[in-house]
């Protein structure tokens, strides 16, 4: 790697810095609100929301880790903490001895059902309400384009 760095232009750096600051501030505030309002960590919320919204309450461990972009060890520690609190259970996969399913328990469903309406109000207040419908549409298009681009790139 002897190639010269392709430094960001002032406009590119401004866009990048603004995006990172916005993202970190938004996630930080939403995380603190989730904790204060529901006594769940932001990580608890992410796991339960993804299990119940996209997995029907049950997902393979590695699929869940990939979906939330976490390392296996981080997901394992998170699932262990949530299992101790009765929010999820781990079930062995009958057709793969090394695989496991993570399953939302009734207590996990109750927790996410109570937290989600409050969380979405904070998302609206801090993010959605700051943008016009046109800006939201543009942001959705940009987000999809960047995500599609990243799928084509090596980690």
* Text of the CATH class: Mainly Alpha
Radius of gyration from the alpha-carbon trace, in angstroms: 19 Å
**Which fold name fills CATH's third level, the topology?**
Arc Repressor Mutant, subunit A
- Strand and helix order: HHEHHEEHH
Helical content stands at 55-70%
Low-pLDDT runs of 5+ residues are none
The end-to-end distance, rounded to whole angstroms, is 16 Å
Number of domains: 1
Strand content: 5-15%
Structural class: mainly alpha
Main sheet: strand order = 1-3-2
Name the shape in a single word.
globular
Please report the total strand number as a whole number. 3
Overall pLDDT confidence: 94
Q: What is the CATH-assigned architecture?
A: Orthogonal Bundle
Report the biggest beta sheet as strand number plus sense, adding barrel if it closes: 3 strands, antiparallel
Tally of separate helices: 6
CATH H-level name... which superfamily?
Answer: Winged helix-like DNA-binding domain superfamily/Winged helix DNA-binding domain
Can you give a write-up of this model?
By secondary structure, the chain is mostly helical. It has one domain (33-151): Winged helix-like DNA-binding domain superfamily/Winged helix DNA-binding domain (Arc Repressor Mutant, subunit A, Orthogonal Bundle). The chain has six helices and three strands. The protein has a three-stranded antiparallel beta sheet with strand order 1-3-2. A hairpin with a 2-residue loop joins strand 2 (88-93) and strand 3. Helix 2 packs across helix 5. The longest helix has 29 residues, at 10-38. The two termini are 16 Å apart. The model has no long low-confidence stretch (mean pLDDT 94). This is MarR family winged helix-turn-helix transcriptional regulator. One of its GO terms (biological process) is response to stress.
């Amino acid at each position: 790697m002897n190639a010269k760095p392709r430094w960001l232009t002032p406009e590119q750096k401004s866009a990048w810095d603004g995006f990172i600051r916005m993202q970190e501030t938004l996630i930080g505030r939403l995380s603190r609100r989730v904790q204060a309002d529901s006594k769940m960590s932001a990580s608890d919320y992410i796991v339960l929301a993804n299990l119940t919204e996209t997995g029907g309450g049950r997902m393979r461990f590695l699929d869940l880790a990939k979906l939330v972009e976490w390392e296996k060890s981080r997901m394992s520690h998170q699932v262990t903490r949530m299992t101790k609190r009765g929010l999820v259970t781990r079930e062995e996969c009958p057709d793969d001895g090394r695989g496991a399913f993570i399953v939302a328990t009734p207590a996990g469903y109750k927790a996410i059902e109570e937290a989600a309406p409050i969380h979405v109000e904070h998302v609206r207040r801090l993010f959605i309400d700051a943008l016009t419908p046109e800006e939201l549409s543009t942001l959705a298009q940009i987000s999809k384009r960047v995500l599609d681009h990243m799928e084509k790139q090596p980690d």
